[in-house]
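Technical annex, item 7. During the second reporting period the consortium partners agreed on a shared format for inverse folding records so that results from different sites could be compared directly. Each record opens with the tokenized structure and is followed by the designed sequence. A conforming record, contributed by the partner at site C, is shown below for reference.
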């Protein structure tokens, strides 16, 4: 009997010290958190994909509504989720020197570890200073025609389709991904693709392969890569496809050598990176250039195409908004003499409002993070708080999706309402709660390019077509459970019809 009791006690002790004690850290340090049972329930829900990841984080955000921050755990990995916008500002801007880096994994994938997002401390600062001149408005104007050509290619494709049909049903995520692929091929790799006419072109297929895919086993691998990188290396798990990584490195090397030999100039990202190499004291290697081009690829291939997909859905189900936007498109086209320019595109106020609201309601990044690089104190500001001391290596999460869906910041957040961003209403918004591209010096470096690509895509599309609801359109839209990204269950189905009046 005593032996059995002893064994039970040992088992309970193991369970406590393995699974309970590690997830009480924040509670012991004066931070509100869920009880261990709820924490493991949330972890299980994330693992088996019982709930969309955005909703999981939304539940975290909504917990402890009066708290400026709360403790969360991704399995045994602890983080502090920051909900107070003033504290977020301090962490990302004022006290940036305490929170310079992202939490990253290291499993020996050089192309991932050398891109701007992954670099740390002085290496990040140096690369950012090298790349920043490549993303100014003047540089974006240089690439405008390349993006415009890709958009014209897309319009021609659907105009041909509509010669024999009154409406074409499309899955917008697939279409926008192929468009983004062609834009990246042209602007970042110096290649010409037409992924709608030639759906199985090598560049597109390699792009599909290098982007981490969704599914239970892949997501499990990603969780291990993010949280247990040593185990991931032992198991041979990779974040990026080895085959695709070799392809893109070979493509960049070939393009760079060709341009150096021919002394040719094409105003694309390769040209800008080669210019950056000439400006920098420590020359960018081909590996560095490929790493930045691939980061550009990730941002365009998945993130921008996701924005386009959600925006297309909102325009289809909000016909009045689409009609008003088309009116602005027509007026702008008339003012430009039939050919849109970069400056004219960025002067379109209602288009900017619609894009901004799409980014508000459907931010491509659900959360972003920062790692504490030196001891940091969060002082008391509300009754019941105690000072919180963060140590080097502690992680804070900034809940972009939660902030954007918080009625304190955006009343009636489920409603798609571009008027939030009108000149009259902008002053009433808490601008610090709107961070679709991140916040502070580590925000997305390619904001201008992402906006140019998105706005040009819809300008061309809406000048020729109506985006309409079809039988397959999901109303209301449901989020997919099988992805760590924000995407729709069953896809983004809409129809394209030729416009009757322009």
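Designed sequence (site C submission):
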């Amino acid at each position: 009997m005593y032996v059995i009791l002893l064994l039970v006690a040992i088992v309970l002790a193991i369970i406590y010290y393995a699974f309970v004690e590690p997830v009480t850290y924040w509670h012991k340090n004066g931070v509100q958190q869920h009880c261990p049972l709820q924490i493991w329930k949330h972890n299980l829900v994330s693992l088996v994909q019982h709930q969309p990841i955005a909703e999981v984080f939304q539940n975290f955000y909504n917990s402890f509504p009066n708290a400026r921050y709360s403790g969360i755990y991704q399995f045994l990995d602890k983080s502090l989720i920051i909900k107070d916008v003033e504290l977020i500002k301090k962490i990302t801007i004022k006290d940036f020197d305490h929170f310079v880096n992202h939490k990253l994994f290291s499993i020996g994938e050089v192309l991932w570890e050398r891109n701007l997002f992954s670099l740390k401390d002085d290496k990040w600062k140096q690369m950012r200073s090298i790349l920043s001149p490549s993303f100014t408005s003047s540089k974006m104007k240089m690439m405008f025609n390349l993006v415009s050509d890709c958009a014209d290619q897309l319009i021609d494709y659907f105009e041909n389709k509509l010669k024999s049909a009154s409406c074409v049903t499309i899955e917008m995520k697939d279409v926008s991904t192929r468009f983004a692929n062609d834009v990246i091929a042209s602007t970042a790799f110096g290649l010409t693709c037409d992924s709608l006419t030639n759906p199985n072109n090598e560049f597109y297929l390699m792009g599909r392969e290098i982007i981490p895919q969704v599914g239970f086993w892949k997501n499990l691998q990603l969780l291990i890569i993010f949280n247990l990188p040593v185990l991931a290396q032992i198991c041979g798990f990779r974040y990026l496809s080895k085959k695709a990584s070799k392809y893109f490195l070979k493509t960049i090397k070939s393009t760079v050598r060709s341009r150096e030999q021919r002394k040719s100039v094409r105003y694309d990202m390769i040209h800008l990176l080669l210019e950056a190499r000439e400006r920098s004291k420590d020359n960018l290697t081909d590996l560095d250039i490929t790493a930045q081009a691939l980061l550009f690829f990730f941002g365009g291939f998945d993130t921008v195409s996701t924005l386009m997909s959600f925006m297309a859905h909102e325009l289809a189900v909000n016909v009045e908004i689409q009609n008003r936007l088309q009116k602005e498109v027509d007026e702008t086209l008339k003012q430009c003499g039939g050919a849109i320019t970069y400056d004219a595109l960025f002067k379109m106020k209602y288009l900017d409002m619609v894009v901004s609201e799409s980014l508000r309601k459907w931010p491509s990044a659900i959360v972003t993070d920062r790692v504490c690089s030196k001891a940091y104190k969060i002082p008391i500001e509300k009754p019941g708080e105690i000072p919180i001391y963060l140590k080097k290596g502690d992680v804070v999460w900034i809940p972009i999706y939660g902030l954007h869906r918080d009625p304190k910041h955006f009343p009636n957040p489920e409603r798609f309402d571009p008027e939030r961003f009108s000149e009259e209403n902008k002053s009433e918004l808490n601008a610090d709660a709107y961070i679709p591209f991140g916040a502070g010096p580590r925000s997305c470096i390619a904001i201008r390019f992402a906006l140019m690509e998105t706005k040009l895509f819809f300008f061309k599309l809406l000048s020729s077509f109506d985006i309409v609801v079809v039988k397959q359109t999901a109303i209301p839209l449901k989020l997919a459970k099988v992805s760590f990204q924000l995407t729709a269950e069953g896809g983004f189905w809409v129809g394209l019809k030729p416009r009757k009046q322009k």
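The two ends are 87 Å apart (CA to CA). DSSP finds 21 helices and nine strands in the chain. All partners now use this format for quarterly exchanges.
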